[in-house]
Structures are given as C-alpha cells and as structure tokens.
C-alpha cells in the first residue's frame, strides 16, 4: 500500500485525522499557515497551490545546515518571506535538526541565520558568526 499524500501539496500524511480528511495540518490551516482561498469564495476548500519557498540544501553539517533560495524568481515566496514553512520543512527531513543552526543567502547576497526552537522559526540573525561555510 502506498503512503497517503495531501491532496493539496502532495506531501505524505502522517496522522489519522489527516489521512481521513486527505489534507495535512499545514494545508488544512493548522498551526503553520492558512491555505489560500479562491478569490471571492467563502467556502473552506483550498485552491491547489504550491507557493512556498523553494530551496536547495547546500550543506548539511553536524552543527549547521546551509540552504540556497531557488524559488524567488519563479513566482515563489523567498526563504525570508516563508521562514515558518522552511524551518518546519527542514525539521521534517533532517536528522538531529533541533541542534543545528540554519544559514541561507538572502536576496541581497548576504548570509544570514534563521533561529528556531527545533521545529518552529523564531527570528532572523544577521551574519554567520562562528561558522565557516
């Protein structure tokens, strides 16, 4: 049997409620973001969309992760503008993520840090003190 996936974003569904509804907690308006609605629509149905930041993991070191924004010029959100999603996404796929620092190149070409509490974005920090990338 294949893994059930969200009918909105195509990500694997992990809990029973999501599997039954066919929509994960993110696309269902859970704690991470509210899905886009059709213009002029009052119903609770989500549009099919994928407007999240796209990025590449350039380096996954024991103490940090370095990512590169690849979606800002393709109509996607930037890492800076989709920090909540990026941190949650990384926490789902990287082992020992809660103990890692996250660095990325911003739209001005600077390397900045995204602070998090293990699975949720908390704030940005300019620069990359103490880490040679």
How would you describe what is shown here?
This protein has 133 residues and is α+β, with helices and mostly antiparallel strands. The protein has two domains: 1-35, no CATH class; 55-124, no CATH class. Helix content is 13%, strand content 22%. It has a five-stranded mixed sheet. The longest helix is centred in the middle third of the chain and has 11 residues, at 83-93. It is globular and about 45 Å long. The model is unreliable at 30-48 (pLDDT under 50).
User: What is the chain-wise order of helices and strands?
Assistant: HEEHEEE
Strand content: 15-25%
Report the oligomer: single chain
What is the number of strand segments?
5
The tally of helices reads 2
Largest sheet: 5 strands, mixed
Query: Mind telling me the C-alpha Rg?
Result: 16 Å
Number of folding domains?
2
The percentage helix is 10-25%
Strand order of the largest sheet: 1-2-3-4-5
Low-confidence stretches: 30-48
Brief description of this entry?
By secondary structure, the chain is α+β, with helices and mostly antiparallel strands. The protein is built from 2 helices and 5 strands, in the order αββαβββ.
């Amino acid at each position: 049997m294949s893994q059930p996936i969200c009918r909105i974003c195509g990500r694997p569904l992990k809990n029973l409620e999501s599997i039954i509804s066919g929509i994960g907690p993110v696309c269902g308006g859970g704690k991470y973001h509210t899905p886009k609605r059709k213009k002029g629509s009052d119903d609770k149905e989500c549009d099919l969309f994928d407007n999240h930041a796209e990025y590449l993991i350039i380096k996954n070191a024991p103490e940090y992760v370095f990512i590169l924004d690849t979606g800002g010029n393709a109509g996607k959100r930037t890492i800076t503008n989709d920090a909540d999603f990026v941190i949650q996404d990384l926490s789902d796929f990287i082992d020992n993520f809660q103990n890692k620092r996250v660095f990325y190149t911003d739209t001005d070409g600077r390397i900045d840090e995204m602070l998090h509490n293990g699975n949720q974005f908390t704030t940005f920090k300019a620069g990359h003190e103490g880490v040679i990338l």
